[in-house]
Amino acid sequence: MKSLKQLVAGGARQFGMVFALIALVLVFQVWTGGKVLTPTNAQNIINGNSYVLILAIGMVLVIIAGHIDLSVGSVAAVVGIIVALAIRDWGITWWMGIVLGLAVGAVIGAWQGFLVAYVGIPGFITTLAGMMLFRGANQYIGNSNTIPVPKEIQFLGAGYLPEWGPSTGLNNSTLLLGIVAILTLVAVEIRRRRSAARLGAEPAPTWISIVKVGTLSVVIAYLTWLFGSGRSGTSFPVAGVILLGLVLIYGFVSNRTITGRHVYAVGGNRSAAALSGVNIRRTNFFVMMNISIMAALAGIVFIGRSTASGPFDGTNWELDAIAAVFIGGAAVSGGVGTVVGSVIGGLVMAVLNNGLQLLGVGSDRTQIIKGLVLLAAVAFDVYNKVQGRPSLIGLLLQKRRRAEVAAAAPGGFEESAAEVVRPGSSSRDA
Amino acid sequence: MTDAPVLLEMRSITKIFPGVKALDDVSMRVTVGEIHAICGENGAGKSTLMKVLSGVYPHGTYSGEIVYEGQEVRFNNIKSSEHAGIVIIHQELALIPELSITENIFLGNEVTGRFGLDWETARSRAAELLARVGLDESPDELIKNIGVGKQQLVEIARALAKDVRLLILDEPTSALNEDDSAHLLDLLRGLRAKGMTCIMISHKLNEIEAIADSITIIRDGRAVETLYAAAGEIDEDRIIRGMVGRSLNSRFPHRTPEIGETFFEVSGWTVEHPQVPGRLVCNRSSFHVRHGEIVGFAGIMGAGRTELARSIFGRNYGRFLGGELRIDGRQVALHTVQQAIDHKIAYVPEDRKALGLNLLDTISDTIVSAALRKISRRGVVDADAGHVAAEGYRVSLNIKAGSVRDGVVKLSGGNQQKVLLGKWMFPEPDLLILDEPTRGIDVGAKFEIYGLVNALAAAGKGVIVISSELPELLGLCDRIYTIFEGSITGVLDREDATQEGLMRLMTGAAPAPVS
Question: How far B338 CA lies from chain A's nearest CA (Å)?
């Protein structure tokens, strides 16, 4: 039982969410008679939702810091039209177009960050204004026309990893990606065990690590096969690779850097953060600027997928991104949330959309269901918070853990009591 | 035992939280017209007991029975206990700053007429209630414009408006200065004379000694004894013995000061209130701190002690108008908190929950939060190093927690304060400013904190202690500055300082003697 706790320790919540996502996929797989887990459909889910997931990564930082950004859809749209126009009319190359797009995003982000962090206008208002402003700018610049983009941009939004090398029956790029992922997983686990040993903590039994890594490796291997075995010319989508890269980068930034810790500190208790030396304004500026750059990137990926930039691109994206973040376990009051959780939250929405579509459920009922899922996920969080328990979709996990606490209780308490007594006597002496 | 009829009897109350027995077979009895104090260390179960009584924990979530006015009662929520005339006033006042006194008094208990709310009646009843509690303010005054002492009186007026027969006060004077506390105690005596029954939770033993008719002492979830004033059983040492289960030889650990050179000097420090131009919260304040010295700042609430400290700590408060700061003889200008930390200054704020802690954080995240750079390389935080550091403080500061990965929100006040101290010891400051370091924590934890402060001084650091409790300053400090309305009015050495002398300087009663 104790081992089981170690298996999920540190990531109980995320573990639970992954579990929920897998369960959702399997349920739809059964209901649709196997239409969900086909290479084409899996590729579609990634391609069709990557831009929302990219936004969710930026949005979770904004929400952790205690703000909100309603302008992301409009920012994506205005960046899209500028990139499309610049490439078509100014004759710049595709990559210069991308750089330009990201720069425009950075400028818009700096503007909104300035207003939020230094002028003190609440993010909600600043970005509500931005939402109108940049939607209008998109339509003004593009004359409300649809402007096509070149192949290279389309590759970003709808392309697949190339095929090369010997025939393995799978797409070799995807295969390589899968192998790298599994090796990384193993390396990370070994490093974790070493660091636990160095800290003097009793490391989890080896079999726990093996089971954990083994299970995840099987999942990755399966996904590799799923994405790599589609009709020729398809493989793991390029947008998915971009997404994976962003998850890694921002997961690291949020967890392991001073900047990231400051974002949590500002959202958790602004005054305490200020008195701890955190530069509140700079932190707020960072999250607001960052989300606009992410919105620019999402806009570029999207025009690639839809092969053109139009006047209504990005409508309601902000709501999808915000929903993903909250399903992913962030708190409205700030200070809580994870990058991985938000992406999984976004995937839950995406799978829901996709599965219902495959079942032939109309968009009317799909929206009702999505609304209820959002409410249920957040209600579950709030309920658990009130109860003082850890959080989210790990409901299944919860039962197991409770049983485990009961089983482990006597030993556990003796242990902590001993810890309390020992230093007590020593400090009395001092 | 008194002959008065029993108003309330709690019998064998047991309340279990997952894994913890918060109350274990607690019984107590309160007679009509008495002031009954409940004493105990933080986490002993006082608040839990009051929550059981007031219906916050509804009937069925605890075992045992409550007999009130001769009948067994089963409260399901606060509303039902208030209906029975039991009103609880919490330590954190539940008033809304933007509303008037009248609106606050009748919040949730509105006076209705034929056409909705009847503000005329409400206002005149509020005026009556204010007269009863001796508060000389207009009923239309906004809560945010009156001091915390007066706010406490508004809370009591609000309880009176609910036709209270049993008034429960949780740490009523913890945020009040001596004057306001004395006034509040007088008011309680007056209410008692008119037949009101009160239960009072307090850490201030001198107040309990002064006012309580009987005391129930709770330790580790059990009611260990009841003391009666009539039997002459109530004195501070007796109460402390009951609370901690042992006698504290001294309230302050022994220390032999080894005082070195002056290293921290402030002169002519002048700061303006952030919202009120022209109001000086620090007026040409000058002071210095030596290595190994514990310096006290005495003053009533709002005198400018915290403002001075926070202004020095990277100009975190108010508008800086002028003044000089010298560290080791060199003049420095600290414009941000980060610069202050870099110059080895630490400020441990008075309000743990609002200013000190991120309650979402774990113990280890909290401890490293003011010096992330120390465990980082090129902006990348080494979480393991932080964990090791935090573990060290958990042991050396005797923080009672299972693991440094536990959330700080779960800790008792005393342990939270220790975590905060650890957080500010981690940057290895030379000067620590401790703002009300023992507010709202129990006797045992206070003793530990005092020991830590002494240890810091023994390590050659300068420590400034800001406190509203004069005995604490007298017991702890080598030198005490008094502050009155933004000005430093005097400085007394340990040998020369008395409560009366400090009080005189703190209230501007006498011209500042130069020492």
Answer: 4
Q: Do B314 and A277 touch (CB under 8 A)?
A: yes
Q: Which residue among A198, A272, A412 places its CB closest to the CB of B356?
A: A272
- Asked if B269 and B231 sit in the same domain, the reply is no
Overall number of domains in chain B: 2
CB B307 within 8 A of CB B281: yes
The number of helix segments (H) and strand segments (E) in chain A equals 17, 2
With respect to residue B253, please indicate whether it lies within any of the assigned structural domains.
no
B231 shares contact with chain A (CB less than 8 Å): no
Spatial contact of B324 and B266, defined as CB atoms under 8 Å apart:
yes
Question: In this predicted model, what pLDDT tens digit does every residue of B391-428 receive, in sequence order?
Answer: 999 999 998 888 888 889 888 888 999 999 999 999 99
- Partners of B448 on chain A (C-beta within 8 Å) are 427
- Sheet of strand B479-484: strand arrangement: B345-348, B431-435, B462-466, B294-298, B479-484, B487-493
Whether B169 and B201 have beta carbons less than 8 Å apart is answered as yes
Which of these three, B196, B212, B244, is where a domain ends? B244
Say if residue B194 is in the same domain as residue B340: no
Mutation site for A-interface testing, chosen from B21, B316, B398 by largest number of A Cβ within 10 Å:
B398
Interface of A with B (CB under 8 A): 195, 198-199, 255-262, 264-265, 268-269, 271-279, 335-336, 405, 409, 412-413, 415-416, 419-420, 422-424, 426-427, 430
Spell out, as residue ranges, where chain A has pLDDT lower than 70: 1-16, 200-203, 384-430
Range of the domain at B101: 6-244
A423–B376 CB contact, under 8 Å: no
Interface confidence, given as ipTM, is: 0.77
The residues, any chain, with a CB within 8 Å of residue A349's CB and separated by 6 or more, are A49, A52, A320, A323, A324, A327, A370, A373
Report the residue from B19, B355, B398 with minimal CB separation from A275: B355
Say if residues B481 and B488 touch (Cβ distance below 8 Å): yes
Task: Tell me, yes or no, whether B207 lies in a domain.
Answer: yes
The CATH number covering residue B401 comes to 3.40.50.300
**Could you state, in order of their start, the residue ranges of all structural domains in chain A?**
2-159+237-413
| DSSP letter assigned to residue B498 | -
Q: Are strands B222-228 and B380-381 parallel, antiparallel or unpaired?
A: unpaired
Q: Would B376 be classed as within a structural domain? A: yes
Residues B409 and B342 in one domain: yes
Cα A328 to the center of its chain, rounded Å: 8
For residues B481-510, give the mean pLDDT. 84
End position of a domain, from candidates B244, B275, B299: B244
Helix (H) or strand (E) holding A7: helix A2-8
Of B141, B161, B159, B210, the closest CA to residue B182 belongs to: B210
> Alpha-carbon distance A34 to A37, whole Å?
6
Distance between CA atoms of residues B136 and A50, nearest Å: 64
Is this model's pTM higher than 0.80 or not? no
CATH number 1.10.3470 given to A2-159+237-413: yes
pLDDT surpassing 60 at residue B371:
yes
* Chain A residues within 8 A of B384 when measuring between CB atoms: 195, 198-199
Put simply, the answer to whether A413 touches B387 (Cβ < 8 Å) is no
Let me know whether B328 and B449 are in one domain. Answer: yes
The reply to whether B234 and B131 lie within a common domain is yes
pLDDT of residue A409: 35
- H or E stretch including A325? helix A317-327
Q: Confidence class of residue B471 from pLDDT cuts 50, 70 and 90? A: confident
Could you list the beta-strand ranges (E) of B299-399: 319-327, 330-331, 345-348, 376-377, 380-381
- Pick the residue from chain A with its C-alpha nearest to B336: A277
Are B74 and B137 within one domain? yes
Asked if B367 and B420 sit in the same domain, the reply is yes
Q: Are residues B237 and B370 in the same domain?
A: no
Within a domain: residue B512? no
